[in-house]
């Protein structure tokens, strides 16, 4: 599964970067979304995959009895999901206002700061 | 000693308040007298320490500051620092009073006092510092305050250019000085000057000796306006006259000389020391005197004369015999008295008749008698006329240099002094004698605060000349500190008729003759000579400076246009490309050797999930409508959540599901107002971008596979798993990490969310703007803009210019 997920992550990165290289600012946003998924999955895969073993300690024990999924990457990704949502939401609204104000979604026409 | 610095800094802090307070009483210049109490107090405190310093007692303070960096605030008072400290505080007090009169009624007076006091603290710290790094910090502080003071008339472009020039030259010199001081500290194994004194011999034989000497000297030469860095000083005359009198004649420009003197017992006495310093000093001395005669502006003449004297000091320190060290200090003291006074005289004339061109001045002795008296006293001292201290200084100078083998330095000294005597003619004789000119018709004397300080300095110069015993003591201790051994000094006004006296008379006669020639308008005979100097020396280094400044600016503009061209995809391309390239360069070989076949342990539903993610990504990329793209993005998100479910991360999956749903809703809401996709780029561009993207994606895949083969154990996670129950009393380890072990990180995350939410809210509540079509509307728009700015919202700059649709 590691190899499969590694290829998936690579594919998501390629799609995200391609979209971010577009001139259309809306596509850029979609690219940003793809890129954050790619990054989360990258962290998850790099942290090591364990099928179905949730990092929860059973009642009455002080430590897990079997090998469980690594909790640390999970904590990192949880933070990353939330933060990337914040970034995406802010970027979305910013772009939306920019389009309303300037009437274009072409990044090349947004070059000057005071149109 | 720390208290003195603190007192001056406090005075600086309250100076604007004092100015406002006194201003409301209607006596604007009174504040100068009030503030002058502080430096005068320090002056008296220094005087009380005179006996202990003269008796070679140790007067020092040591406060550890950053011990790890060898930084300590260690201050030490010896003869040399006492001499400088007295000049800094004594003349400083007079300058504060004088500045009050000079800028009477100006709102910026408080500001000027503050800067002068700040400078005073920095300069006092510089001369008291016993630690090389502390000294350097004060050194740079004087450069910065000097920059602020030269640019005091910040509304004038030439004033700003001069300030910048002074800062770049002296600040650049400071940058050169720092490695020199560090080398010195390394070679001597200490940054305390008093410690270095004990290891002078090994330092002089150290392999760092020559580089450190060159670096330190460049720093000292820039600060003290030595050739070829002299050009900033005349330009610094753009500052108001109190500043020129204080910083650019009496104190700051002598910091370089001070440093040379301070380091003489450690680095001095070698052939390198002698030739580098003495030759630069001699060139500067003659050059300054010649250029002084070329100038017609009172302050310019004085500035060039100052350069000449600074050259003399450097020359004398470079020669470095006991006699020349005493002479250097004598010239230093004499110069501080007369040049400070003459600058104030020039300021008084400027203030009275608004004219500084000596050709336009004349007949002021009747209208400004007190100023004339001050000018006379200072002029006699500068020309070295009996019985002023200037005469004694010049006698010791001639005598000490006369003992050196070869008469080149003596001849140069006499030449430069002839020039200075002629300059005295232009500064102290020409404006006061003869008939009144058009400019001086309405001349009048300023108040006592205007003529008092220069008269005090003039009388002090005279008094020291008549009673040189007390100052001899100080000069002996001071030159003892420079020489590194005990020196005895017996200054006397009258040495009897000897060679030195004859040379003095020759100088005076030569100077008077020269003045007479120049005064009679016979200048054209000397013109070729002056042109030579102008071309080669006056404009040479200055041209280099301007050329450098232009080139640096052009380079900056060019590389900004190249690297910061405003195309987002260019930045992305650069980042992605560099990352990919560096990954392959750093790991290329290792990657190939580590990539071995891994067991392909997959299950059907997992393959399905991965294929779904990839397919959805392709759909998102190729979508022609935003709805399809957003839908595909959502599919990717849900499938990623599915991966989380399969591999033991239910918390992640739940969060991902919620967030993904929210994202899709948000996108649909916003995108419904945005246009459909347009195809903006050519197929060639798309091909190029696709290539970049695929290479980057492949790199990530390979990197990830590599990361998995080199993975070690999970020591950090093991800790969390083992302590989750025992220390945090939680069984869901992921949650425990987030809310307990790394709770502060989570707090940071929440803060980021809150900030983003505020940003989103502000942007959404900003009502849709329309293009302004009338002036009234535009005004309203500006008002709207400022109101919203005040509310703390982040506005797009363009939005503020347009008008609120509802307001129209």
TrEMBL record, chain A:
Keywords: Cell membrane, Membrane, Transmembrane, Transmembrane helix. It is found in: Cell membrane. It is a multi-pass membrane protein. InterPro entries: CPA3_antiporter_subunitC, NUOK/Mnh_C1-like. The chain crosses the membrane at residues 6-21, 28-50, 75-96. Belongs to the CPA3 antiporters (TC 2.A.63) subunit C family. This is Na(+)/H(+) antiporter subunit C. It comes from Stieleria magnilauensis.
From TrEMBL, chain B:
The chain crosses the membrane at residues 30-50, 83-103, 110-129, 135-154, 166-188, 208-233, 273-294, 301-319, 325-349, 370-392, 404-429, 450-471, 491-518, 567-587, 607-623, 628-647, 653-671, 691-710, 746-764. InterPro entries: CPA3_Na-H_Antiporter_A, MrpA_C/MbhD, MrpA_C/MbhE, ND/Mrp_TM, Nuo/plastoQ_OxRdtase_6_NuoJ, Proton_antipo_N. Residues 129-403 form the NADH:quinone oxidoreductase/Mrp antiporter transmembrane domain. It is found in: Cell membrane; Membrane. It comes from the Bacteria. Keywords: Antiport, Cell membrane, Ion transport, Membrane, Transmembrane, Transmembrane helix, Transport. Residues 774-783 have a biased composition (Acidic residues). This is Na(+)/H(+) antiporter subunit A. The lineage of its organism: Bacteria, Pseudomonadati, Planctomycetota, Planctomycetia, Pirellulales.
């Amino acid at each position: 599964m590691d190899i499969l997920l590694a290829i998936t992550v690579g594919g998501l990165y390629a799609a995200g970067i391609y979209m971010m290289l577009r001139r259309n600012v809306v596509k850029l946003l979609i690219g940003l979304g793809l890129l954050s998924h790619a990054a989360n999955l990258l962290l998850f895969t790099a942290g090591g995959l364990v099928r179905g073993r949730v990092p929860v300690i059973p009642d009455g024990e002080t430590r897990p009895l079997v090998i469980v999924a690594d909790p640390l990457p999970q904590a990192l990704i949880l933070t990353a999901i939330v933060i990337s949502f914040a970034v995406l939401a802010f970027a979305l609204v910013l772009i939306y206002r920019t389009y309303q104000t300037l009437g274009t979604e072409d990044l090349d026409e947004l070059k000057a700061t005071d149109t | 000693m720390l208290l003195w610095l603190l007192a001056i800094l406090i005075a600086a802090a309250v100076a604007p308040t004092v100015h406002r307070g006194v201003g409301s009483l209607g006596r604007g210049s009174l504040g100068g007298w009030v503030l002058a109490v502080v430096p005068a107090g320090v002056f008296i405190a220094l005087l009380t320490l005179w006996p202990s310093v003269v008796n070679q007692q140790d007067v020092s303070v040591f406060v550890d500051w950053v011990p790890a960096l060898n930084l300590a605030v260690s201050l030490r008072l010896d003869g040399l620092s006492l001499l400088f400290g007295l000049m800094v505080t004594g003349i400083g007090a007079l300058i504060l009073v004088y500045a009050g009169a000079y800028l009477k009624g100006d709102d910026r007076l408080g500001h000027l006092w503050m800067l002068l006091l700040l400078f005073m603290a920095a300069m006092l710290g510089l001369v008291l510092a016993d630690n090389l790094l502390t000294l350097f910090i004060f050194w740079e502080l004087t450069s910065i305050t000097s920059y602020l003071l030269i640019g005091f008339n910040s509304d004038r472009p030439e004033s700003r250019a001069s300030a910048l020039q002074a800062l770049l030259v002296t600040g650049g010199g400071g940058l050169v000085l720092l490695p020199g001081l560090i080398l010195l500290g390394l070679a001597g194994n200490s940054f305390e000057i008093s410690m270095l004194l004990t290891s002078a011999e090994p330092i002089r034989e150290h392999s760092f000796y020559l580089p450190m000497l060159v670096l330190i000297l460049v720093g000292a030469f820039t600060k003290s306006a030595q050739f070829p860095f002299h050009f900033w000083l005349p330009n610094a005359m753009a500052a108001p006259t109190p500043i020129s009198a204080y910083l650019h004649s009496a104190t700051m420009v002598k910091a370089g000389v001070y440093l040379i003197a301070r380091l003489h017992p450690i680095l001095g006495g070698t052939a390198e020391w002698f030739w580098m310093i003495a030759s630069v000093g001699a060139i500067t001395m003659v050059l300054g005197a010649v250029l002084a005669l070329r100038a017609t502006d009172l302050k310019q003449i004085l500035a060039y004369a100052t350069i000449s004297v600074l050259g003399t000091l450097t020359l004398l320190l470079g020669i470095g015999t006991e006699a020349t060290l005493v002479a250097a200090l004598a010239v230093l003291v004499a110069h501080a008295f007369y040049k400070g006074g003459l600058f104030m005289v020039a300021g008084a004339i400027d203030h009275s008749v608004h004219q500084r061109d000596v050709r336009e001045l004349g007949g002021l002795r009747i209208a400004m008698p007190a100023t004339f008296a001050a000018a006379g006293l200072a002029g006699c001292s500068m020309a070295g006329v009996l019985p002023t201290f200037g005469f004694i200084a010049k006698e010791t100078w001639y005598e000490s240099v006369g003992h050196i083998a070869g008469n080149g330095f003596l001849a140069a000294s006499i030449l430069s002094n002839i020039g200075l005597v002629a300059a005295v003619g232009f500064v102290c004789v020409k404006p006061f004698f003869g008939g009144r000119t058009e400019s001086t018709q309405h001349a009048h004397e300023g108040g006592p605060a205007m003529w008092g300080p220069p008269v005090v300095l003039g009388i002090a110069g005279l008094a020291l000349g008549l009673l040189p015993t007390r100052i001899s003591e100080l000069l002996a201790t001071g030159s003892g500190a420079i020489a590194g051994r005990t020196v005895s000094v017996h200054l006397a006004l009258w040495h009897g008729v000897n060679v030195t006296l004859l040379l003095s008379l020759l100088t005076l006669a030569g100077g008077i003759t020269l003045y007479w020639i120049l005064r009679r308008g016979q200048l054209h005979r000397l013109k070729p000579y002056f042109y030579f100097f102008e071309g080669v020396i006056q404009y040479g280094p200055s041209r280099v400076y301007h050329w450098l400044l232009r080139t640096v600016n052009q380079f900056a503009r060019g590389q900004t246009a190249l690297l910061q061209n405003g195309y987002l995809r260019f930045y992305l391309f650069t980042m992605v490309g560099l990352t990919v390239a560096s990954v392959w360069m750093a790991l290329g070989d290792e990657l190939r050797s580590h990539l071995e076949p891994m067991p392909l342990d997959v299950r059907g539903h997992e393959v399905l999930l991965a294929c779904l993610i990839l397919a959805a990504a392709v759909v998102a990329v190729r979508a022609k409508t935003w709805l399809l793209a957003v839908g595909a993005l959502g599919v990717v998100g849900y499938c990623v959540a599915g991966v989380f479910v399969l591999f033991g991360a239910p918390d992640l999956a739940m969060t991902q599901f919620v967030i993904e749903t929210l994202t899709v809703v948000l996108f649909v809401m916003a995108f419904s107002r945005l246009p459909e996709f347009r195809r903006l780029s050519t197929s060639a561009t798309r091909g190029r971008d696709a290539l970049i993207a695929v290479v980057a994606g492949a790199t990530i895949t390979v990197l990830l596979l590599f990361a998995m083969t080199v993975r070690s154990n999970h020591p950090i996670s093991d800790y969390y798993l083992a302590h989750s129950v025992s220390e945090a009393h939680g069984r869901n380890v992921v949650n425990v990490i987030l809310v307990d072990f790394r709770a502060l990180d989570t707090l940071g995350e929440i803060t980021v969310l809150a900030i983003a939410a505020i940003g989103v809210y502000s942007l959404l509540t900003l009502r849709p703007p329309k293009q302004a079509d009338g002036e009234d509307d535009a005004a309203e728009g500006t008002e709207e803009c400022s109101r919203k700015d005040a509310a703390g919202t982040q506005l797009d700059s363009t939005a503020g210019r347009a008008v609120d649709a509802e307001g129209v």
